[in-house]
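User: Last request for today: this protein with zinc ion, please.
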Amino acid sequence: MNELSADLNKKLGEAVERMPAFPKSVQKVLELTRDLNCSPKVLVQVIENDPVMTMKILRVLNSAYYSLPSKITSINHSVVFLGLNTVKNIALSIAAIGILPKQNAADFDVNQYLLHSLTTAAIAKHLCGKVGGADPMDCYVAGLLHDFGKVVFAQFMPEQFKISLEKCQEGEMSLFTAEQDAIGTDHTVVGSMLAEKWQFPQPLIDSIRNHHSEKAGETAMGACVYTANQISKKLEFGFAGDARLESLPPAVAKHFGVNINLDTLISSIGEAELSKILEQARQFSQMDGS
Amino acid sequence: MKVKFWGVRGSIPSPRAGTVRYGGNTTCIEIRTDNNELIIIDGGTGIFPLSQTLLKELPVTANVFISHSHWDHIHGLPFFIPNFIPGNKMILHGAIDPVSGRGVEQVMDVQLQYSYFPVREAEMKASIEYVSLSPGQTVQAGSATVKATLLNHPVVNFGYRVECNGKSVFFTGDHEPYSNIYSPEDESYEEYRGLIAAQEKMVFDAMQGVDVLIADSSYTIEEYPAKKGWGHGTFDSCMSMADAVGAKILYCTHHEPTRDDDVLEREFAKALARHPRSEGMADFRLAREGIEIEF
Ligand SMILES: [Zn+2]
Ligand SMILES: [Zn+2]
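Assistant: Here's the final one, the structure of the complex with zinc ion:
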């Protein structure tokens, strides 16, 4: 797997600092911060439904400055630690950057991407709640951020990313292989390198890095994110550029029991739960903010 | 160790007949080590009268620690007279602002601007040094150690524990006890409860066994529900905290600007009655401008 050059790592890190968040959360943050007594629960929910905001708030908290004995993955933890008003003002400063444009030169649909990320997050959390071995909210965050590299490509390397998307759609290869051809690296590397650069907890970095590799099976979190990603794709909850399904490697499947495949897992989650997950994700991914 | 209160008022200076006994200046505490080294916590308006007393012991090195950047804790800083006299030194400690990303120098910068103050920092004759602290960091100030602990306020706020020759004092700055943002029926309630418990333990550990605890007790328990989330404690929350951490003396401070002395004493007495004292328990007192204790 290609490592990211130090130079590109630095450039992307700085670019993401200036990256705007998703329209619905920007609008919600602006709305909430107009009210002095805004509901803390609602604010947490808004941040937790936006990969860009989540990424940036975790970045502040896990920076060397706070030198925390244990790394922080939860937005709730960030509120306990920094206080609601400080988190609110960080969110407001992110909102002030602007809105992630619906159209980008890569023709990558960020609305569908968000729907895919949100459903992967919720399914990963659900799976983790069943099998244990990790914190369900940590799995949620890992699911939310697993494809972060793609939205970074769409924003900052749109031409090459467009070529990757097209190659993948022509049916020649998976998106991450096409990215390696066109960009020299792929979204698992870029996403995990950013998480590493910002000193996120190791299991979170690994889950992003391994979500297309059988190494995902090394941890419960990795297995939940890998599997949730495939379930979200199979059910066509949103779309993040690659419709191909990958079967569950034995190392991943073993976390969920014997003779497990995507279909048995989907039916064990149940239709009611899955449609609830889709409905909630839809509410947050609407681009018009209505 | 000596501790002297130069400002005990919260939010805004409140000089008037009704506050003349407890004082109208905003937060400023002078601490002297056994070697007479100078530590100042917070630069409210109380720092101005304090700084005038320093003129007889020039040159001075002032180890200043800012709990947080709200006006009532920094608005006296431009009037710290030794800063205008060559040979003096101020070492200003405080937090980094996670929103602006700037260090503690920001609390001087924002005030020493052309529109707001006639002298620029560059024109001040003393040497001014800035030390931005991380939560949990301990620094040396003369023969004392000072440890910063992150507390709960609408802006990053450090409580400081100052220790010297086996004696210790902890000042909270502004602090509200943690509370759960979720209701028991919410899915996240338990997670949040656990996070709060861990954070509170860290805070209590930092205060454990102090000789003198100086704590933000802005509100009465009757006032508190309407002020929840504003980042301040009550007389009662401070008293419970002092008992929980085994403090020897508690000073209640950051008095409400509208509270006259008689009312202050009455409300304090009511809270005291709810926390009866017996042998070996912490002694509860009201912080008053001008009092000095040695321990
Ligand atoms: Zn204050
Ligand atoms: Zn304050």
